[in-house]
# Entry
Amino acid sequence: MDILGIDIGGSGIKGAVVDAESGELKTKRQRIPTPDPSTPRAVTGAVTHLVDSFSWVGPMGCTFPAVIRNGIVCTAANVDDSWIGTDATALFERATGCPASIINDADAAGIAEMVFGAGRDQPGVVLMLTLGTGIGSALFVDGHLAPNTELGHIEIDGHDAESRAASSARKREELSWEQWGLRLNRYFQAIEFLLSPDLFIVGGGVSKKSEKFLRHIDVRAPMVVAQMRNHAGLIGGAMAAHALIQGGAEAELDPVHLFER
# Structure
């Protein structure tokens, strides 16, 4: 089933038509900058622009960098605070005329990796961490998603972790790869102490340069790079929408096992 995947991030909004059953992109990915300020009205305008650019009239699956409950945005770490309390599903549907679903961006990326990528058939505790404007997290136990974990915001050494260890912090502070890698090491070790995962999956755009920083990270669990790379979010968003269409709200919360059947 073809679904338009829309991946809304703190710095960019990406879109592509996705075959939600195979994880393949049916069109070339398009990317536009996230508006600044990233208010609901501005972001909705950008999403509408992407929908129009594909001449799309079918269902769409959107991701968003926040805690999402029943389509409502509950936090706003890397977007404008005015999003808090907004029914994003209803907003996008009114603006585009397309049936829409919305899911946390890291959860979406994790779903794609668990079905088609680095986490496929992996039992136990799998934690995907996306390194970008912030640090997104997606936690799976035997393939079941624990949604909205937001582990980028744990406190380490008196700081919100993503403020020092996100990819944006490396650029903002002009850190060397080694300096940033050592910060990541402190973060990954803290996460491992709390959750004891069986596998770490590292995603986000910077994962394309993983050889520059992963060698500075010393954890017990295996650590692999996301196979879907920067397409994981929009693929997972489309998959979550497909799960909602096929199996209802319960399947939307547990799409990995829907795709296994």
Remarks:
- The longest strand covers residues 12-19.
- DSSP finds eight helices and 15 strands in the chain.
